[in-house]
């Protein structure tokens, strides 16, 4: 493995970019990106919704659902999706009292944990080149010291 200064610089930049900055950006993306999800889950009511119509445009679904509100009246709403649904299916979704025209389909929490696990592995993997280069440089310094000591010993 090359242990010159350039490879050390690249390893340090990799650690800074992927090992430090990427986790910070990912943290803020996860916490702020899920703010609307948090609002729906905390303040919304989990309701059974009948998927009336599904239109797929550019691999994104536009869904219309029908659900019964607290008064028992049928309400037609637009679905905010985090999963694939089919017309005619009954799914559970969150409804906010102040936004009866929208329902939120929660994502499966397994995907969130899987994504966090992949990000964690990526961050840990970014540290491997730096650790390997520092270890190799340490071994090279020790080998150089041993050569110097051997040359002095032979010279006596």
Question: Could you characterize the architecture of this molecule?
Answer:
There is one protein chain. Strand 2 (60-68) and strand 3 (74-80) form a beta hairpin. The mean pLDDT is 84. This protein has helices at residues 5-33, 35-43, 109-155; strands at 45-57, 60-68, 74-80, 90-96, 99-104. It is rod-shaped and about 100 Å long. Helices cover 54% and strands 27% of the residues. Helix 1 (5-33) packs antiparallel against helix 3 (109-155). It folds into two domains: 5-33 and 110-149; 44-108, OB fold (Dihydrolipoamide Acetyltransferase, E2P) (Beta Barrel), CATH 2.40.50. It has 156 residues and is of the alpha+beta class.
Number of strands: 5
- Number of distinct helices: 3
The residue ranges in which pLDDT falls below 50 over 5 or more consecutive positions are: none
Strand order of the biggest β-sheet: 1-2-3-5-4
Query: Biggest sheet, in brief?
Result: 5 strands, mixed, barrel
Mass-distribution shape: rod-shaped
The radius of gyration is: 28 Å
What number is the mean pLDDT?
Answer: 84
- Structural class label: alpha+beta
Give the fraction of residues assigned to helices: 40-55%
Overall structural domain count: 2
Run of helices and strands? HHEEEEEH
Beta-sheet strand percentage? 25-35%
How far apart are the termini?
Answer: 35 Å
Summarize the structure.
Helix content is 54%, strand content 27%.
């Amino acid at each position: 493995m090359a242990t010159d200064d350039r490879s050390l610089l690249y390893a340090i930049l990799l650690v800074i970019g992927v090992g430090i900055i990427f986790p910070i950006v990912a943290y803020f993306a996860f916490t702020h990106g899920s703010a609307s999800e948090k609002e729906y889950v905390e303040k919304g009511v989990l309701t059974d919704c009948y998927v009336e119509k599904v239109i797929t445009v550019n691999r994104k679904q536009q869904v219309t659902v029908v659900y019964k509100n607290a008064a028992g009246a049928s309400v037609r709403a637009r679905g905010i999706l985090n999963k694939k649904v089919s017309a005619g299916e009954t799914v559970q979704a969150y409804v906010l009292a102040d936004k009866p025209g929208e329902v939120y389909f929660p994502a499966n929490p397994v995907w969130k944990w899987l994504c966090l696990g992949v990000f964690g592995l990526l961050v840990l993997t970014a540290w491997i080149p730096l650790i390997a280069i520092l270890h190799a440089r340490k071994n090279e310094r020790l080998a150089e010291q041993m050569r110097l000591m051997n040359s002095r010993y032979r010279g006596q």
